[in-house]
Amino acid sequence: MELLWREGGAACLIIAGKVGWQADDLLGRIAKHPELGRRLFVFHDLDDAELAHAYAQARALIAASYVEGFGLPLVEALGCGLPVVAADIPVFREIGGTAVDFFPLDDAVALAVLLGRLESEPRRRVEGWRWVSWDESTRLLLEKVLRRMTA
Fold first, then answer.
1. Cα dihedral sign for 108, 1, 10, 86?
2. pTM for the complete prediction?
3. What is the H or E stretch that residue 120 is in?
4. Which of 25, 55, 83, 136 is deepest in the core (most CB within 10 A)?
């Protein structure tokens, strides 16, 4: 975002979610950031309605995790039709497939290019993506277990 802001971009960044481990340095940097309260906002305790509102107003979800257990924000955002820009890690590829724009975590310029494109394009929605239901997930698991048992 700092690269975009230096180039004149007007997009806002909202960081939402509980504070994770080993985040003290980042939280300190955010607390001192000149854009905090202007184009940079942090919310640690959004309820479901506030989070739904944030998804409805956003241009995209940025998921920049190095490691992720599941990636629920991607599922939520894609389920709302919100474009997703995500780190190129296996779990995000599994969830998002071709519906997500991926960037290498060590390349801030590549991320800035993707975000700049989203900022300059008309607002868009992701169409045709859907997550498997519990029934489908159970069926897929059982198929794999049965295949292993008969192999």
1. positive
2. 0.83
3. helix 108-120
4. 83
Which residues on adjacent β-strands are paired with residue 15?
Answer: 42
In contact, 38 and 8? CB cutoff 8 Å: no
C-alpha 7/C-alpha 33 separation (Å) is 17
Spatial distance between the Cα atoms of 70 and 53, rounded to a whole number of angstroms:
22
Q: Give the burial string for 26-39 (b: 16+ CB within 10 Å, else e).
A: eeeebeebeeeeeb
pLDDT digits (tens, 9 = 90+) for 48-72: 999 999 999 999 999 999 888 889 9
Please list the helix, strand and coil fractions of the chain in percent, rounded to the nearest 5, in that order.
Answer: 45, 15, 40
Token pair in block for residue 69: 């257990």
- 31 token code pair: 């607390």
Question: What is the pLDDT of the chain when averaged over all its residues?
Answer: 92
Residue 15 and residue 17: Cα distance in Å, rounded?
Answer: 7
Nearest to 108 by CA among 142, 141, 79, 85: 85
DSSP symbol at 98: G
